[in-house]
Amino acid sequence: MAVLGEIRNRPWLLMGIIAIAMLAFVVNPDSLEKLFGAKPGVFGKVNGEEITKEDFDDQLFMLQQQAQQQGQPAKGLEQQAWNMVVQSKLIKQQFEKMGLKLTDEMFWNQLQFDPMFAQNQQNFDEKGNFKLQEIKKQVEEAKGTNVEMYNNWLKTRKAIEYRMMARQLFANLSAGITVGKKEAEEMMKQRDQLADIDFVKVDYAAYAQKNPVKVTTQDLADYIKKHPILFKREASRNVGLVYFPAAPSAADEAATQKEINKLFSEGSEMSGGKENFQNTTNDSMFIALNSDMPFNPQYFSANQLPASIKDKVASASIGTTFGPYKEQNFYVVSKLLDKKPSDSTLSRHILVSYKGNQAGGDVKRSKEEAKKLADSIGAVVKADPSKFAENLKFSSDPGSAAQGGSVGWTTPSTPFVPEFLSFLANNPKGATGVVETQFGYHIINIEDKKSGSMGYKVANLVKAIKPSDKTENEVYTKATKFIQQVQGKSFNDFANLAKKNNYNFSNPKEIGRFQGQLPGLGTDKDEEVIAWAFNKKRNKGDTDIFTVDGTGDRIVAYLNGIQDAGTADPEAVREQIEPIIKNKILAKQISDKITAAKATSLDQIAKLFASTKQSAQVNLLSPQVAGAMEPRVAGAAFGVAKGKLSNPVEGMTGVYVLVKKSETVNKQPGDIKQVIQALQGQNSQQFGQNFLKSLQDNAKIEDYRIEVYNQASQQN
User: Fold this and answer.
1) Which of 199, 289, 627, 644 could make an SS bond with 658 (beta carbons 3.0 to 4.6 A apart)?
2) Looking at the structure, do residues 424 and 548 belong to the same domain, yes or no?
């Protein structure tokens, strides 16, 4: 199943946005997070076509698995998954609207050009021919023998089909993108023409200092009305947040230090005060009973150890203790248990799973049958390692199967399950054996070994510096008093009281239902706060208090605004558009003042505004004036008659009045054919992204997720 294993092993893209990656079955599952689950139903529509729970869940699962494999948080991906599903639907709809059809024959013929297959040399023979028949055969074998792998293939095929449709769609549309000779000639003219001008600039910022203007909510609303597509928004909420961290006090830290000192030198209560960390003969058990972090039996390089001891372990003898010392929010005592060279091992495996275990999936065999099969394969491979490849068809780990069973080079600190690492550590190059883990039975073959840097096995007795009950109660009292004070009050009262008391205040104005995290917080309670704000029972002015799990921190939330899907709430986007509107108001005032003055020269205008006359050379394709990009000023320079005073020009950074002194031509290298090719390439490159955005802007996209989730919360 080497080719199908690509489904779980290689990330790939659909239009630069859809990605998949699955985890190999030798990674320690303790680091995996629970996957998101949704209630049955239709999550939305794109131009009338349904987005089902299956569509959404498949994409979300892929993104979460990719995030986990890359060591990133697997939360807050719901909106990204939704966007990807919507874009996939739009591509498919446009493909079919153009009368195009992706047949089964076309799919198989085009498969070799898909990035997932094209970038893996194992899919081609020594002559460079694509192994199409072999791939088809593997798909058919999986259909009858490995249901889980076959189902994953079907999901992957769907995504590959979207990529194929996208490539064909954009290829057909891009073929129609041409550049005419007249267009190229005009572009060359704009490129080569230069205008020498004198000008006076009335800077907006300088003018506003003496003539301040106020932008009203109605001004914002009017601007939004003129640009509806730019301010098209999903449903959002405006929420005020005050964060009360339950930070440990100095007394809490001193208590933690006293506790670890007692465990280190005096004794633990569980041993009746007789056994301490210095004299214990069972370090792992002592840590299991007394430490806030579990015992880790792996070997680590010096650089992987805490900063306080990494420079000391090399010269220390076995049994040496270090500390107590402070490491971030912990007090630690470390004991050096062993040191040895950290070998790197190249190995491969075949995983034989069974019904009911973590990698079993749809496998029907019992544990006894799996053990019998694994022992049989192990005996064959041990006798003749060349037989390894032909037995990969029994492996339930397609990720490694895609690489001939290889899991690559590993060290004792690689995050694999302990049983797997133990076999690698205790057996030489060439060894083959059967190892049982929670995933099933692994037939492991060690291909190579090489010596590495020194590895250290360290027992760490750890005590977290936590807020005491007293500290948490003080935080709770403070947060409760605050929410009582703002109950029924305005948002201004809420914000002002928080600022007056120097509390941690924030006000994200456009929170999306599925964005996952709140700006500036990033706690495990963020999703709950967002769900609270979007509950249909909520009203503007509602407040609530939330407790962050495990820390005792409190969050007080105030619902300041409810924005349904449509155009943005004016106040929510004030920071974005207020400078634009303010400049327009200032521009009108400045222009009216210039017109009223009936000035006939730049000197008069400069005097009117206590400004100075300047000179510049401008070009339409690179319209820089005094260090600022000013396309309108460049346009005016070529539109006004020579020697004539221009009308006021509303620029990006100020209002300009100019006089054109002369025009010159600076002929640059390149003939018209080169310009046509360059323009055509540039237009084609920009087309795809702009076309997809246009499809989204003009599509009828219905999002039912908020209703679905509200119904689910009521049922629960």
Assistant:
1) 199
2) no
Can you point out the beta strands (E) in 564-650? 566-567, 613-618, 624-625, 628-629, 649-650
* DSSP-derived 3-state class of residue 712: helix
- Looking at the structure, tell me whether residues 331 and 373 fall in a common domain: no
DSSP string, 82-95: HHHHHHHHHHHHHH
Residue 221 sits in a domain whose CATH number is: 3.10.50
Whether residue 685 is contained in a domain is answered as: no
Q: What is the 3-state secondary structure (H, E, C) of 334-398?
A: EEEEEEEECCEEEEEEEEECCCCCCCCCCCCCCHHHHHHHHHHHHHHHHHCHHHCHHHHHHCCCH
- Domain identity same for 408 and 508: no
Is pTM beyond 0.70? Reply is no
Angle between helices 526-534 and 705-715 (to 10 degrees): 100
Q: Which of 423, 450, 477 is the last residue of a domain?
A: 450
Kindly state whether residue 166 falls inside one of the protein's structural domains: yes
Q: Tokens for 262? A: 């007692």
C-beta contacts of 386-391 below 8 A and 24+ residues apart:
388/348, 388/350, 388/445, 391/350, 391/443
Residue 271, C-beta contacts closer than 8 angstroms, at least 6 positions apart: none
- Dump pLDDT digits (tens) for 125-182: 777 888 888 888 888 888 878 887 888 788 888 888 888 888 888 877 777 777 778 8
Tell me, what CATH number does 103's domain have? 1.10.4030.10
- Say what the pLDDT of residue 430 is: 93
Tell whether 13 and 76 lie within a shared domain.
yes
How is 258-285 classified by DSSP, letter by letter? HHHHIIIII--GGGTT---TTT-S-HHH
DSSP state for residue 556 in the 8-state scheme: E
Residue pair 6/22 in contact (Cβ under 8 Å)? The answer is: no
Which structural domain range is residue 522 located in?
236-247+468-564
> Quick one: how many helices (H) and strands (E) in the chain?
23, 23
Residue 628: φ, ψ to 5°: -115, 145
Please check whether residue 684 lies inside any domain of the structure.
no
The answer to whether residue 387 is domain-embedded is: yes
Half-sphere exposure of 553 (CA within 13 A, CB side): 19
Q: Please identify, among 542, 564, 586, the residue that sits at the C-terminal boundary of a domain.
A: 564
Residues 315 and 350 in one domain: no
Q: Phi and psi at residue 100, in whole multiples of 5°?
A: -90, 155
The string over 395-421, giving b where at least 16 C-beta atoms fall within 10 Å of a residue's C-beta and e elsewhere, is: bbbbbbbbbebebeebbbebebbeebb
Which residues are bridge partners to 347 per DSSP? 408, 446
pLDDT at 440 over 60: yes
Q: What distance in Å separates the CA atoms of residue 620 and residue 239, rounded to the nearest whole number? A: 45
**% of the chain exceeding 90 in pLDDT:** 42
Which neighbouring-strand residues pair with 506? 241
Using pLDDT thresholds of 50, 70 and 90, give the confidence band for residue 31.
very low
The answer on 192 and 163 residing in a single domain is no
Q: How many domains does the chain have?
A: 5
Element (H, E) at 459: strand 454-464
What amino acid occupies position 714? Q
Same domain, 588 and 549: no
